[in-house]
TrEMBL record:
It comes from Microbacterium salsuginis. Keywords: Cell membrane, Ion transport, Membrane, Transmembrane, Transmembrane helix, Transport. It is a multi-pass membrane protein. The lineage of its organism: Bacteria, Bacillati, Actinomycetota, Actinomycetes, Micrococcales. It is found in: Cell membrane. This is TrkH family potassium uptake protein. InterPro entries: Cat_transpt (IPR003445). Its main location: membrane. The chain crosses the membrane at residues 33-53, 65-84, 96-120, 169-191, 224-248, 260-282, 332-360, 380-401, 438-462. The keyword Transmembrane helix applies. The keyword Cell membrane applies. It comes from the Bacteria.
Length: 479
């Protein structure tokens, strides 16, 4: 009996593809967290390949692999740390690749995928809503039933996606329009400013901090309009898309804002003011930073530095010249970062707010954590504590490894590691001097910081199981 190997092979190919497709569908529904990690890794590999092309380099030569990998990670994870000078190392094509990458990473890869699906199919199924919802609320990455008592419910995911797309396009466009005349008046050519204005706008809104021109922001150190515009872009990107959605939905009806929105905005403003006050008090007599400025310049630059250490990544003063005390303040601000489901990194301001409220409630002897007429459940408090613990562990391990490899001062290493974990992008100058092994460790730190500790823990955890019994209680001594 004659056989047809070619026909048999053709029949097996669709079966294999169908098996892969079914596996991917199961992955996205059973664990959106693992799917998020997979998509991030895939994008990093794609952008590494693009940035490794000779066309991406300004001199026509391939960028070294370690630098290409690190730049791709920093781009997709909207960090802004770099081992090379973006302005002089990459060609126009390479900068376009970076521009596209930060917008993909800023919106969130799962959110972007859902937006594309919404555009193509004109509707979102439950599967797509679950994927998108895991970007708007990391708690959804865990298996098991979905708690609908959240900032954005599944029924509102489609509206949230439209808000993400429209707010990204609108805010970046408005920031670019505002920046264009400022760049021209600063001496940038009219045609060149047409490119640099959108680039700066994207870097501000996505909280990345790459600069397209040599010297970074130093040529614009006295241009307060330009710097203020960048701060506004950074602030809007750092508060998070759920907050932008809530503000758009309820406008200025503060009483109707969700608790998440209130906590995010209040904590963000308090940290912005407290950070500026700390930098002003610590650096006013430093001749290498604020010491040579008058009172107005010093105050403005203190607020600018406070905004950028939260996640913006732009710098006017040399970070390496800050006093050690200021580096510690900057590290604290970077570790906290911005709002949840935003373009900023860190443990998030709501995490800090929840823990602060829990400590205050414990000091007052209250049985529950309450604020603005709402009670914060214990599971949210446990997640907040876990986020801080995991974040501190990642920072500590990365600092130890990089300090051992580089043998650099621990203060500089710690600052740059926290900048990497918080996807901030500020550097004492250490990152550009690291060896390849240390560069890869720093890239992993960036990746874990951007993915988020909640998502990362859910990605490696087994499927949640219900427990139908309760163990006896015993209280260990604490404190």
């Amino acid at each position: 009996m004659a056989t047809d190997p070619a026909g048999s092979l053709m029949r097996r190919i669709p079966t294999t593809l169908r098996g892969w497709w079914d596996g991917l569908r199961n992955l996205t529904t059973s664990s959106p967290a693992r799917f998020a990690v997979l998509v991030f890794v895939s994008l990093i590999l794609v952008f590494t390949a693009l940035l490794s092309l000779p066309a991406s380099a300004a001199d026509g030569r391939r960028v070294p692999l370690a630098d290409a990998v690190f730049t791709a990670v920093s781009t997709i994870c909207v960090t802004g740390l770099t081992t090379v000078d973006i302005a002089t190392t990459f060609s126009a094509f390479g900068k376009v690749v970076i521009f596209v990458g930060v917008n993909i990473g800023g919106m969130g890869v799962l959110t972007l995928a859902s937006i594309l699906g919404l555009v193509i199919s004109k509707r979102l199924g439950l599967r797509a809503k679950l994927i998108a919802a895991s970007d708007s609320n990391p708690l959804r990455t865990h298996g098991g039933p979905v708690n609908e008592g959240q900032t954005v419910r599944l029924g509102e995911v489609g509206q949230l996606l439209r808000t993400v797309a429209l707010s990204t396009l609108l805010i970046e466009a408005l920031v670019a329009i505002a920046l264009y005349p400022a760049l021209v008046m600063a001496g940038i050519g009219a045609l060149e400013a047409l490119w640099e204005a959108p680039f700066y706008a994207a870097m501000a809104f996505t909280n990345t901090g790459f600069t397209p021109n040599p010297g970074g922001l130093e040529p614009f150190a006295d241009d307060y309009f330009l710097l203020t515009t960048l701060m506004v872009g950074v602030f809007l990107g750092s508060i998070g898309f759920p907050v932008i959605y809530a503000l758009f939905k309820h406008y200025w009806h503060v009483r109707r804002w969700p608790l998440h929105t209130k906590l995010t905005i209040i904590t963000t403003v308090l940290l912005f003011i407290a950070g500026a006050a700390a930098f002003l008090a610590l650096e006013y007599n430093n001749p290498k930073t604020f010491g040579s400025m008058d009172a107005w310049d010093t105050t403005f630059q203190a607020f600018f530095l406070s905004a950028m250490t939260r996640s913006g990544g732009f710098a006017v003063v040399d970070i390496g010249e800050l006093y050690g005390s200021s580096l510690i303040v900057g590290s604290m601000l970077m570790f906290v970062g911005g709002g949840s489901a935003s373009t900023a990194g860190g443990i998030k301001v709501t995490t800090l707010a929840v823990l602060a409220l829990a400590v205050w409630s414990e000091a007052k002897g209250r049985q529950s954590v309450e604020v603005f007429g709402r009670r914060i459940p214990s599971d949210v408090q446990r997640v907040a504590l876990s986020v801080v613990a995991w974040g501190a562990t990642i920072v500590a391990l990365s600092t130890i490894v990089i300090a051992q490899i580089s043998q650099e001062p621990i203060a500089d290493v710690l600052f740059d590691v926290i900048s990497a974990f918080g996807t901030v992008g500020l550097s004492t100058g250490l990152t550009a001097e690291l060896s390849d092994p240390a560069v890869y460790v720093m890239a992993v730190t960036i990746f874990m910081g951007r993915i988020g500790t909640v998502t990362l823990a859910a990605a490696v955890a087994a499927t949640s199981r219900s427990q139908l019994y309760s163990l006896p209680v015993e209280r260990p001594i604490v404190g």
